[in-house]
Amino acid sequence: MAKLTVEGVGEFQVPDGKRLVNALVDEAGTDQLHACGGHSRCTTCRVQFVEGEPEQITAAEKETLQAREVSGEGVRLSCQIKCDHDMTVRLISRLEGSGRKDQGGQPADQIEPPPEWVSK
């Protein structure tokens, strides 16, 4: 089990390999957005890593962040992250105040599209 700490929310035990986007909703009970359903097509599931940022990134995440010109120290897409180690994140994209009707479609258990791991 990995320990997920969400700033301002608390600490949670997360099954190894669970997608961060799902852990933020299921275990932490947050209103984290994921408008595209976890397919790395939008950037609504952004988080900022405070500690424990993964060394690798999926090719899809890297491409999406570059195409949308999203930058910032530790800013990543929670739909493309596996909880396989302890991490601390700050929520960036939440339903509250977004004007959206819901968080988005339920992301699959596995990272989509199938991950091709590359260096950051």
Q: Outline of this structure?
A:
Helices cover 13% and strands 28% of the residues. By secondary structure, it is α+β, with helices and mostly antiparallel strands. Keywords: FAD, Flavoprotein.
Poorly predicted residue ranges: none
Main sheet overview = 5 strands, mixed
Structural class: alpha+beta
Mean pLDDT level: 97
Radius of gyration over C-alpha positions, nearest whole angstrom: 13 Å
CATH topology: Ubiquitin-like (UB roll)
Helix tally equals 2
Q: Can you give the helix content as a percent range?
A: 10-25%
Strand order of the largest sheet: 2-1-8-4-6
Shape by Cα distribution: globular
Please write the string of helix (H) and strand (E) elements.
Answer: EEEHEEHEEEE
Terminal Cα span: 25 Å
CATH architecture: Roll
Tally of separate domains: 1
What's the count of strands? 9
User: What would you give as the CATH superfamily?
Assistant: Beta-grasp domain
Beta fraction of the residues? 25-35%
Domain 2Fe-2S ferredoxin-type: 1-95
Region (Disordered): 96-120
GO molecular function: iron-sulfur cluster binding
Keywords: FAD, Flavoprotein
Topology:
Blueprint: E1 2-6, E2 10-14, E3 18-19, H1 20-26, E4 46-51, E5 56-58, H2 59-67, E6 75-77, E7 82-83, E8 87-91, E9 117-119
Parallel strand pairs: 1-8
Antiparallel strand pairs: 1-2, 3-7, 4-6, 4-8, 5-9
Domain 2Fe-2S ferredoxin-type: 1-95
Keywords: FAD, Flavoprotein
InterPro entries: 2Fe-2S_ferredoxin-like_sf (IPR036010), 2Fe-2S_ferredoxin-type (IPR001041), Beta-grasp_dom_sf (IPR012675)
